[in-house]
């Protein structure tokens, strides 16, 4: 299944949850926010939130400094 992650086409296993995607991308366990189709998804919902073909995903990582 193809989705857009930060405007880059990415191939995922079908029926992937946000949590599965985050694990496969080795995202840190803290300091990350994810939006799907312009709606923020709380971390508490990542395990149940199933991604669909052509979803637009934005991953935001917190950074220290300025």
From TrEMBL:
<dbReference type="InterPro" id="IPR012675">
    <property type="entry name" value="Beta-grasp_dom_sf"/>
</dbReference>
<protein>
    <submittedName>
        <fullName>Sulfur carrier protein ThiS</fullName>
    </submittedName>
</protein>
<dbReference type="InterPro" id="IPR010035">
    <property type="entry name" value="Thi_S"/>
</dbReference>
<dbReference type="InterPro" id="IPR003749">
    <property type="entry name" value="ThiS/MoaD-like"/>
</dbReference>
<dbReference type="Pfam" id="PF02597">
    <property type="entry name" value="ThiS"/>
</dbReference>
<dbReference type="InterPro" id="IPR016155">
    <property type="entry name" value="Mopterin_synth/thiamin_S_b"/>
</dbReference>
């Amino acid at each position: 299944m193809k989705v857009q992650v930060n405007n880059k086409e990415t191939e995922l296993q079908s029926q992937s949850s946000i949590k599965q995607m985050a694990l496969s991308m080795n995202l840190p366990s803290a300091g990350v926010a994810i939006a799907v189709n312009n709606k923020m998804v709380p971390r508490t919902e990542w395990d149940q939130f199933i991604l669909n073909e052509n979803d637009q995903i934005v991953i935001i990582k917190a950074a220290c400094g300025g």
